[in-house]
Every structure is written in C-alpha cells, then in structure tokens.
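Case 339 in the screening queue. Each case pairs one protein sequence with one candidate compound; here the compound is fe (ii) ion. For every case the pipeline is the same: read the inputs, emit a complex structure as tokens, and attach any notable structural observations.

Predict complex for case 339.
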Amino acid sequence: MTPPRGHIAHLGYAILDTPDLAATAWFFENILGMTEVRRVDGMSLLRAYDDYEECSVIARQAPTSGIGRVAFRTSSEAELESRVIALLDAGREGHWEDGIAGRGRTFVFTGPDTHELALYYDTDWYVAPEHLAAGLKNQAQAKPNRGVGVRRFDHVNFLAAHPATDADFMVDVLGGRRTEQIRMNDGRIAAAWVTFTDKSYDVVFTEDWTGGNGRLHHLAFAADTREDILRAADLALDLGVHIETGPHKHAIQQTFFLYLFEPGGNRIEICNPLTRLVLAPDWPVVTWTEPERARGQAWGLGTIETFHTHGTPPTEGQDTRVYRPTGMLGKRPSGDARR
Ligand SMILES: [Fe+2]
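Case 339 output:
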C-alpha cells in the first residue's frame, strides 16, 4: 500500500509522569474508558479502544507530574532515517534506544523548549484477547463498558517559552503544517497549532507564563460524540474527579471540550473534534488577534484563570495538590475532592 504522505504518520504515545500511578491509571480506565494493557516497572500501559498499536499512554510513577515524552510514528523506515538526518542537520542532539511498549528502535531527542520527543517506525499491532475482541474485524478492540470509551489520543498541548520557535521546528524539521495561531498586539505568537495529518491539529504550543521549560498544558483524547463529553462531566462529578472547565466550545479549532485534572495533577482534555478536517493542501494559517482571543471561548463560560496558570510539572510557588478522586477504588466521598 502507498504510504501516507509526509514524514510523520501520527502521534504515537505519551509518557505521562505522575506521583500516584495507581490513581492515574484508575482515572484513565474509569473516566476515559481506556484499557490497561499491563503494568510493569512503575509504568501503566493504557490504550484507547481504537488504537491499532499496543498503547497510546504510558503513565509513569515519578516524583512529580509532567510530560516525560511524546513519540511519533514516522511514515516509513526511510522517513525515520531521513528525519534523524534532518534533526542532526538542524543541530538537535539525540540518541537511539530500544523501543518500549511494542515499538521498535526509537530515536530520542529534545525540542527547542526541552520537551523530550521521539521517533519510531517499527511497531507491534495490537491483538485483543478474546474477552476484549471487537465484533468487527476492522476495529482493534471492543468498546469498554466503562468510562467514556475515548477513541484515540488526539493531541498534545505543550507549554513553551517561545511557541513560534517550537512550531517552526515541527514544520521545518518534522514536516508538520501550522493551521492556526494567536498573534499578540506586540507581534509575538502566543500559541500555535500544528498538524501532521488531515486532523486540524496534533500538537499545540502555548506560551508558558511562568518562565518554565519543558512543561505540559494538557493531553487530549477524542470521544466519538459531543454527548460523550457531557457524560464524562457526569462521571467526573459522580467519582469526585476535579473538573477544571467545560463542557464548552473553543473558538480556535472549534473543539468541544472538557478539562479534568487527573489524580496526579496533569490536565487532561476529553474532546470531540472528529468532524473537523483540514483537507486543503494550501490551507492558509488562521491568525487570531489578541482582542479576538480576549473574547474567550466560542460559547459557554469564559476562560478560567487556571487555564492560563496551571501546567505540569508545577513550578515553584504553583499549585502542587494531588487531585485524588473521592470515588476512586470504592472509597466514598469525604467532602473534599482534594488533598
Ligand atoms: Fe486541547
């Protein structure tokens, strides 16, 4: 079969650091409806039901929250080699590692803002055990009968000191396309959205107001319908998971969303962007001005303050609370969702 166009085929997996692995894994299983493939060496491998690979999230026990790595699958073995050459030519240092979570050899490097990134091509295709087998042969796994049942790991939103620098890196070295951006009155780019696929975005860089580097704003997971987002909010309410904001609709990219804090403190988005594709090969970058951004979301409530201040890992003076759900593991609500 002809390989997909472009150097990068799609987002592969994220390593998400958490100070409470059991609670974080519980969140992904019971709110997002993902399936834990296995837990080994302080890591929980978690998959969405439509992942053709073994997993798309690796929750990792760590001293604090944050993003450990985001890995991309290249379009071919040749494209893996070509991107490594391009990275080295661009002055990015990196090294080869044995793959993890069913992936083959992997080139690990850092982006301009020090986020750990990785490229691989070889991968194991997931074969569901009998009790998780789907009714249709073109679906990797049956929909879980718990949580929302998100379809896939949709996008990552990194915090960065200079979003334009990181977005340019994704475009110039890895072959992405910038689809939307925010330009402030002084001309600086406060956020940029980049895609490697027909989805309107796979990676976002947002200005980190704290001056930190290598931090995460959120990971996002796509649900099949808007109704799933509302159900996720109800589930979060019942299980005592902290709802930061939503459900609302973003103006930029028009995504319908809900933002939750998983128990380790990382922000997780459940989104419904499935109907919006960028098919035009000559798509012009949509630029939102500072006054346009100040209007807030498309509709729903205004943008909550923590959306601009909370990132992981926390920087000095930032909120370091662990958001333990009141309903997890059969415990009854204690009256305060936070500890
Ligand atoms: Fe998002």
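Case 339 observations:
- Helices lie at 21-30, 77-89, 163-172, 226-239, 290-294, 306-309.
- The CA atoms of residues 15 and 58 lie 5 Å apart.
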